[in-house]
Amino acid sequence: MDTWATSSLSPLLVCGYGTDLFERAYPMDLRPQAHEIIRTWLFSTVLRAELETGALPWRTAAISGWVLDPERQKMGKSSGNGLSPDELLDRFGADAVRYWAACGRPGTDTAFDEGRMRVGRRLATKLLNASKFVLGFPAADGPPTEALDTAMLGALDAVVADATEALADYRYTDALERVERFFWTWCDDYLELVKDRAYGDLPGADSARSALRSALSTLQRLFAPFLPFAAEETWSWWQDGSVHAAAWPSPAGHVDTGALAAAGSVLAEVRGPRRGRGRRCGRRWARWR
Q: What is the span of the domain harbouring residue 44?
C-alpha cells in the first residue's frame, strides 16, 4: 500500500467530502508543509483531489523549512533531538513561542532560539503595559489635532499598509518586523513625548488622548496574529467582542509629516549624554566601593 493513500485524502476529509460543508469549504486557501515531502504528500494530494473532484485542493502551498538545533541539525523525533512544546509554553508562554515561530521565513530553515522567545515575551509584556498606560487616560471627545499626534497616526497608516501587503503575500515575518519596529518607537518616543500633555487639561490633551487610543486600537489588531493572547487580553479591557473577530485596520488617511521621526532624533541626542553620565557615575561608584 502507498503510505500516502490516506493522507492524500486529507483535504477531502477535512472539508467534509459529500456533505454541505464541502461545497462551502473546498478548495481550501492554504496548504502548509515542509519541503522534503513535496514529491510525496503534495503530489499525491493534488493528484488524488484532481481525480476525485476535478479541481485543485488548495490555492496556495506554503513551503516551510526545518527547525534546527544549536548544532544546525534538523530537530525531530527520528533525530532524537526533538522537544515537546509543553515545557517551552510553560517557561515562556504561548505568545512568546508563537513569536519565535513567526520569525521563521517561509522556505528557510529556522534555528531553535530561546533568546528569540524571551524577546517575544518582553514584547507581549510591553503590549500589556503600554495598553494599561494608554487606557489610564480618559477618552477624548474629538479627533487628534496636534501636529505630532497626526504625524504619528500618519506613520502608523504606513505601517498598516505595509503589514497588510506583506500578509497578503504570505510574508508574515516582514509584517511582524514592520509592526514591531514601529511599536517600540511608539513606546520609546511618542509615549514619552505626549504623556505630560495627556495628563494635563489644556486643549492639546484631548488630541494626545485621542491619538493614543486610536493608535492602540490599531496596534492591538496588528499584533493579534502574532501575540494572540496579549492582544486579546488588552482588547478586552476596553472593547466588546474578540480582537480576532474585529475588522483588520486600514489606513485612516493621516499624513506622516516626519514630525515623530524628527522628535525621536532629538530625543536620541538628549538621551545619549544622559546615558553616558549614568555610566560614568556607575564606574565612579564601583571604584568608591
A: 1-64
Give the CATH number of the domain where residue 191 resides: 1.10.730.10
CA nearest neighbour of 18 among 51, 52, 60? 52
Within 10 angstroms of residue 44's Cβ, the number of other Cβ atoms is 18
Contact 56, 164 (CB under 8 A): no
Residue where a domain stops, chosen among 40, 64, 88: 64
- Tell me if 99 sits within 8 A of 93, measured CB to CB: no
Domain total in the chain:
2
- In the chain (289 residues long), the average pLDDT of successive 10-residue segments reads 79 94 94 86 92 93 87 76 85 96 91 94 98 96 93 97 96 97 96 93 92 98 98 98 98 91 85 57 37
> Is position 84 within any domain?
no
User: 0.70 exceeded by the pTM?
Assistant: yes
Distance separating alpha carbons of residues 219 and 175, to the nearest angstrom: 12
Whole-number Å distance between alpha carbons of 28 and 44: 16
